[in-house]
Amino acid sequence: MAGLTTPVLATLGTVRTVKSAARTLGLDGGDDDGDERRRREDDLLDYRQAVELSQLRAAQDLEAETRRTDAERRARQIAVEAQAAETRRQRSLRRAVGRQRAKLGGQGISAADGSGEAILLGLVREAAEEDATARSLDALRLKALDDEARAAYRRNLLDLSELTERQRLQRLARGYS
Length: 177
Fold this sequence. Notes:
about 180 residues; mainly alpha
């Protein structure tokens, strides 16, 4: 709903500006000849289109800045969570290795023995696989942030091109080139 409110408020502001400009230019029913009235209407159209364009650009700039700061915040959060997960995995590995060595020692098997070493290496390998999986997931999350930013940039370009095309058609309809 918040995404709809901003364009509506911007449109209302544009309507008020256009009405005010129309009153100022005397387009509210004056007795000027046709050429002068046409010039004023053309000036009003140019002014209104410039206001629309500047409002769209300002809204897009604000949205882009908000999106950029949000993406930076989320990227920092991903990095902090990744570091915390890495610390947890390392602690867990140390505890698992310690438990396994104690268990092997209780059974009279040396950790340097072939089977004891294989068990410990298996624990280390599992931890390395978990680390690689976590790094891949973090990379995907960061890529998703980048993809969101690119999609928003493309939407903004599309909105801007739609506005300029609509304005061009309005000028053509009024006899502009």
